[in-house]
Amino acid sequence: LQATPCLSPSGVPCPLTLMLSSFGLPSAARCVANLVPQRSRLPGWAARLGARFRSDPADMFESHFVEESAPFPAGAVAAPGAGVVHTSDERVGTVKGSRRQSGRRMLLAKQPEPLTEPRLESALANDTRGSSVAQSSARATALAPQEQSLQRVVAGAGAALVQRSVELPPQHLSREDKRQVAAAERAEMAVTVGQHLLTMPPARLALQQDLGSARSCSGVLALCTQVEIEQMDAVNLATAVHRLAKLSNGVHERSLVTAHPRFVELFDALSVQLPNLNGQGLVNLMWAIVQLDHIPEWMPQLLSLCSERHREFSARDLSATLSCMAKTRGFKKFAELEPLKTEVFEALSGRIDELDTPTDLVCAVAAFSRLALRDEQVFGRIAERTIGMLDSFVTSDIASILWAFASVNFTHSGMFSHIQSLLEQQVERCTPRELVQLAWAFSRVKQGDESLFVDTFAPVIRARMLEFDAPKDLCTLAWSFSHAKVVDIPLFNDLAHVLSAKVKLMNAHDVASVVVAFASIEYAHRRLFRDLVKHTRSIAHTFSPLQLARTIYGFGVAGVDDEPLYRTLCENVLKQRKLLHAKNIVEIVVGLAEAEYTPLKIMSVLLKDSQDMTRWLAAEDAIQLLHVVSRLPKEVSREACSDTFVDDMAALVRRRMQGWWRLRPNDMADLLEAMRALDLEDVFIIENICKQLPRVLQDPACNSSLLLRLWGGLAELPLQTRHAVKESLHRRDKIVIPLEEKLGDVVAKWAEDEESARTHALLLYACARLGYDGASARSLSGSVLQAIATAGGIPDDSQHSQPWWPLLCWSLAELQHELSSAREFVTQCVGALEEDFASGDLGRLESNAILQVVWAALALDVPVPHSVLRRLSERFEGQDPQQLELDQLHLLRSVALDNALQLQRTGRAVAGLALPWLDALLPGGPIGAPAQPRPWRPSATGTAAAAAVAGRAPRERPAELSVSRALVELRVPHEASCLLGGVHQVSAALPVQKVALVVLGAEDLAAPSRALLGSAVLRERHLEALGWRCWHISQRDVVKAEKEGSLPELLASGFLEAVGLAPKGREAEKPPSENRSEHRHSIGVDARDRTDVAAHAT
User: Fold this and answer.
1) CB 94 within 8 A of CB 108
2) Which of 218, 429, 803, 976 has the greatest count of CB atoms below 10 A from its CB?
3) pLDDT tens digits for range 737-772
């Protein structure tokens, strides 16, 4: 109509005029009279009608003329002789004053302008009628109902005919015929829209289509007069509200609409008509309410109706209902919401296949994610549906689908793989916002490999760097790459340069995101972080608790050394202490510890309430706290932490280990280091670590450096917990196989380094502490001894605080590797010690290093000069034996026993060669006669160290108890689990026959070769020197025979026959031939130890 002439050059009525005149209505004539004042050019009937109604301009236009798409806007009044059509809402065009060659007058409309409050009021109150709404309603009421219906039909028919460009009725038809033709055309249009419209009354049908063709909020509200609202049915009311919601743009325009009196009347009328709406009407109404952000009082009634009729909804309506509930928080206060959400979700879960468009799928899955409706089967069906329809998806749909899956932390390898392949071809079509969503989603669920980020995302991001919404989108991209563990230095350089210029535009959230992102990949751009530090100080008061925690953590991990910055941030932490979550406290403590800024005041506030924190922390958080506290200065950790802090955190880790939780490689290494530093002995935790160790060793994140941390942490455990690790190495081949593979890779990598002898020795020491003698450990022994032989003697290790060769001596002696070369090397080391002591140069060796060299010499049967023993005793004099570690006590007691046996064997005078401090470690003092067995009892002090000093064994194994019970059944007098010489524990001792029975367990045998360790060899030598015969039997054979009930027969046919105590007349079943050998090392030495863990725990 914007380009349709009103009149032909000859004065013949134009199509518009013909359409109006065909119905002969007052409204039609009035339109013509108002719009074209030159009556001489109108048909006679039109001129007469125009003259009749020109004097009454207050009568309202038909409502469809309000819309931009209608022929003329509301309020159009042409002044006589003027070429401009004046309107109250300023949304009309100008009537060109110039004539074309055809002489036709053209009406050109302007483009619609944004709706403002003055324009809205002008369009509704000051239209062409010039009267109030009440007056207009009174006049409209005075019209006959039939005429009102025909008016609506005329209005709808005119819009329909123009929109569809249909041919108008021929000129020769009568007025009634023309009206029938137009009505038939209008009915045909209704059929195309929907069959249900045919059942509507004509007046309501016309209004329904007027509302549907409205193009502005003012047009909709102009249709909703008081009289019309009273006559509207439920469909008209819902359509009006739906159109208002759809046409309103922006918060300001929505507020104008919802505050208008006609909108209020619409909502009041809807409260009565709600039960008359069908399913689609209920859903559309709910969507309109959410879009307008205006919740009526009858909202509970609407939710209840949706709940009652949700089975009538289509799959699209169900999806839209969930989407409405997800987009607003105002529904949460209604009790009807949760039942409706559950019912709709269950109904939609079984109808996923009915969602046949990408938009429907996106709407459904986005609603699931926002409402936290996690169902793996439903998401799996959506993923399969997406794969089948992926060709019809646009990049925005793909980004939305991935965002929804990532938000609930769900992944589908097939869908992500297909999408990744598609993105490799179409990533350049993505908008900057879609690139951000895609990168975030792939990073969030860890489905994108490095090639996707580096080869697909990074080039497009760098090419379109200036198109992103800086700094928010750029900060999200930096976080996505860092969370995916992808380091693209060129990209991060570009991000840093762009963000450096935008630092002043960053808010607290942006600062926290970019600091964590750059710090997590160990890439701290100097200029960027300098600007961030300065900007953070100025906006520190705006940080939330979460942003404070992440910012402190990021700056600390990045190594930013700025005490004023941390002081400012900590002041805000103290102000918001009551708002801090337990996880925020963990990040703050870790960040401050990394920055080495640990004031007692802030640490005391954060760590004082450990019991309350454990209610909210995960096991990973507890491990981080333990690791941080183990690194704090002693005075800070002692004053800041409560007495139960370590026990509370360890208890939390134990509880989580009993469930589904599994350790990650880095968490396992941190936990082991914390347990060592905090002297935390927990066999249950260590046993669970050993159970999870095979999985951790096969994790791709377990690189060589992390492997060394794990292996070193296990090796540094105290004696009791380290024994649990040894037992696991003997029982579980799943540990040995990946461990050997990892250690082999490390050894092969170090073989290329010519100066790696010290590193080899330290790794070999860890293997010896755990009794591991695999192929990699033997390779280490050979390589380090070869390097020493090439160097021509003891290597010079002056650049390190402590020499490493004492550790090598002990390791070679414990593992019994390269015995000839090892004896030669240990002899050189002992000689070097003697020379240093003789010259008065005590060197840099600590007491424990000297002890390790001396014990290695004893285990390898290398003579030790008495001067070296005297110096060793002098080093330890004055120390309380109860303060020493059990490992040191065992070594010292072995050295003391060997010295006593040496003096007894040589018959030298004790007065000049006695070593009082060492002799005091033996229970009976210096040995003058072979020691009798001493049974051990629980220590009165309750400490393992005191028990060891008192000459009592620290533990009794279940296998030893089984052996003792079997000997009792065989009526053999014996001492169970006793100490010989006050040092060496044996499983059973026969004092009369001088025979000792030793059950060989994980502390006696190496894994996986099951060869005797150096400590077992030295024990055997000492027992022989004391006059005892030693009989060995494997723990595996004992456990197996105990389960079969044949342990007495096994002992009778093997051990007792060898010592001549086999019961007469007893027909004991002969064990296998390999178990009947009388050789002391042959009974089950090569068998695998499978001690019952439950019995051991008991």
Assistant:
1) yes
2) 218
3) 999 999 988 888 877 665 578 888 899 999 999 999
> Are residues 583 and 612 in contact, defined by beta-carbon separation less than 8 angstroms?
no
User: Which are the contacts of 818, defined by CB distance < 8 A and separation ≥ 6?
Assistant: 781, 782, 785, 812
Cα(449)–Cα(484) distance, integer angstroms: 8
- What pLDDT, in 10s, does the model give residues 466-511? 888 778 888 889 888 888 888 888 888 888 888 888 899 999 999 9
Closest CA to 16 of 78, 107, 80: 107
The amino acid sitting at 777 is A
Q: What is the dihedral of CA 218, 219, 222, 228, to 10 degrees?
A: -130
Indicate left, alpha or beta for 1002 from its phi (over 0: left) and psi (-120 to 50: alpha): alpha
Rounded to whole angstroms, the Cα distance separating 407 from 372 reads 9
CB–CB of 163/213 below 8 Å? yes
- What is the widest separation between alpha-carbon atoms in the chain? 152
What value, to the nearest 5°, has the Cα angle with vertex 571 and ends 565 and 574? 140
Contact 1005, 1089 (CB under 8 A): yes
Q: Where are the beta strands (DSSP E) in 159-229?
A: none
Helix (H, G, I), strand (E, B) or coil at 356: coil
Distance CA 714, CA 691 (A): 13
If residue 47 lies in a helix (H) or strand (E), which one and from where to where?
helix 44-54
Task: Using DSSP bridges, classify how beta strands 1029-1034 and 995-1000 pair: parallel, antiparallel or unpaired.
Answer: parallel
Name which of 1052, 1049, 1042, 1054 is nearest 1090 in CA terms.
1042
pTM over 0.70: no
Task: Answer for the pair 664, 620: CB distance below 8 angstroms, yes or no.
Answer: yes
- Structure tokens, 125: 């109150």
Task: For residue 704, give Cα distances in angstroms to 53, 343, 672, 700, 735.
Answer: 96, 52, 17, 11, 16
For 374, other C-beta atoms within 10 Å of its C-beta total 12
Helices (runs of H) and strands (runs of E) counted in the chain: 57, 9
End-to-end CA distance of the chain: 94
Q: Are 453 and 486 in contact (CB under 8 A)?
A: yes
* CA–CA dist 374, 385 (Å, integer): 17
Nearest to 219 by CA among 340, 91, 375, 133: 91
Q: How many CB atoms lie within 10 A of CB 827?
A: 14
pLDDT at 533: 92
Give a three-class secondary structure readout of 459-500: HHHHHCHHHCCCCHHHHHHHHHHHHCCCCCHHHHHHHHHHHH
Six-digit token string for 673: 């280091």
978 φ, ψ (degrees, to nearest 5): -120, 170
SS3 1036: helix
Contact 479, 513 (CB under 8 A): yes
Find out whether 343 and 310 touch, Cβ atoms under 8 Å. Answer: yes
